[in-house]
Amino acid sequence: MSTDTVDTDGGGSDPAIEVTTDAAAEALSLLEGEGLDTDEAGLRLFVQQGGCAGLSYGMRFDTKPEDDDLVVEHHGLRVFVDPASQNYIGGSTLDYEHGLQAAGFEVENPNIVSECGCGESFRT
């Protein structure tokens, strides 16, 4: 299978995930800080088993997508999503929150039917 790339900067819509300007800027800064080529490397967003509600998000930097990944581009950031995770995060938005007590990436997922009390895991 070949990697599918969706470029959303041109006004198209993306079936898997949206990325805010703040999230893209923060991720690109971190990628560059790691010495990774932002033309090839990207942020991998995935869903894994875990947490009290059953599922949790994972994120890491990858140097390139896997062959069966959906690759979306927002504001210059490449995001890699594996096929299994696409089922759980379709329609989600990745944002970066700046707060007094904490800052970090946040996934706003319309598919969630319940979350645990701490907000770290979810169920669809």
From TrEMBL:
Name all Core domain ranges. 21-120
Question: What InterPro entries does UniProt report for this protein, alphabetically?
Answer: ATAP, ATAP_core_dom, FeS_cluster_insertion_CS, HesB-like_dom_sf
What is the designated name of this protein? Answer: HesB/IscA family protein
